[in-house]
Amino acid sequence: MTIEVDVALRRETFSLEVAFTADAGLTALFGRSGSGKTTVIDLIAGLAQPQRGRIVVDGTVLLDTEKGVRVPVHRRRIGCVFQEARLLPHLSVRQNLRFGRLFSRGAGGPSLDAVADLLGIAALLERRPAGLSGGERQRVAIGRALLARPRLLLMDEPLSALDEARKREILPYIERLRDEAGLPIVYVSHSVAEVARLASTVVVLDAGRVAGQGPVDAVLRRADLIPDGAEAGSVLAMTVEGHDAASGLTRLTGPGEGRGLRLDVPLLALPPGRRLNLRLPARDVLLATEAPRGLSARNVLPGRVASLREEGAACLVEVACGEAILLARLTRASALDLGLAEGAPVHAIVKSVALDAGLTPGARIEI
Ligand code: ADP
Ligand code: MG
Questions:
Q1: Residue 72: how many CB atoms within 10 A of its CB?
Q2: What pLDDT score was predicted for residue 361?
Q3: Does the keyword Cell cycle apply (predicted)?
Q4: Ion ligand 2, residue ranges at CB < 5 A
Q5: What are the structural domains of the chain?
Q6: At what angle do helices 93-102 and 134-147 cross, to 10 degrees?
């Protein structure tokens, strides 16, 4: 399963030239407002036409301007979810979901009940949209899109109209969709926290061009690619190992299968074995040249300096801790005081409360 996008579009005040490929999983289109994210979504959906372009989804050519192929919108089998749920107000949730089914061609695809279960909306089926929370409405909109049996799901800032609590509520469902529905997703966002949590691959757009692309951990460590560089950090694919209710902490191991790293974070309502992309902002990581003693921070991780990069008055240090790479942001003066150099042994210190920032699941979520 791959998606290939290579499009060029010229408007009076804006030109866009974007090429990327994505595999299954969730690909984030990330960039500041006006960088062209929605335009790319419109081009993939067929809602806008590029001057030149080729778009292939899972071997099916949807657009090839050189060969004169332009599959119309309704034949593309692409599901779209926007900032607003756009449900039909006079229909129940069940009828809204069935409305999605109307657009599916042929048999097969998930049942309405399976989709309702996946998205946690089974109890809402007879309700009307007006009585639902914003997060619930968005889950219904996602369900409606899924029932049309799309080959690709496009989501354009689906959480940006929701408050923090509603975002936290819906994120686990998008993770399940990514992991269980087997459907590739292109997801637009300008939030580092959201991208870190959800994306496997990130394509960074800047003024209609691709500024960088790659695996989420590699891209989000690059301060130069992030609109607000101070938000750079590492993303670790961790697994919930267990909980200690007495101390109010959850232990995570990772990243990936190696599981060399252990991190204690404020209690998460996720079952042991659940995987989780954990964002660790560079500004929340301290470095010490010796193992600190008499320190309240829970997580002290021995490692080695992998690279150093100066950025204004700051110094960004990549620290290899086993398989994981953590990013630390220090002042240049501190980096100098510590005598940091490539290969030097260091201890990375992470406050466990720091790990609660950035849309990690709150303790109230049960899924
Ligand atoms: P983003 O989704 O990243 O915020 P958009 O793709 O919406 O960015 O917009 C990219 C640029 O194209 C912006 O400069 C915007 O003003 C312009 N633009 C968007 N839609 C249109 C349109 N229909 N006609 C002309 N210009 C547009
Ligand atoms: Mg947009």
A1: 8
A2: 46
A3: no
A4: 37-38
A5: 3-226 (3.40.50.300), 235-359 (2.40.50.100)
A6: 30
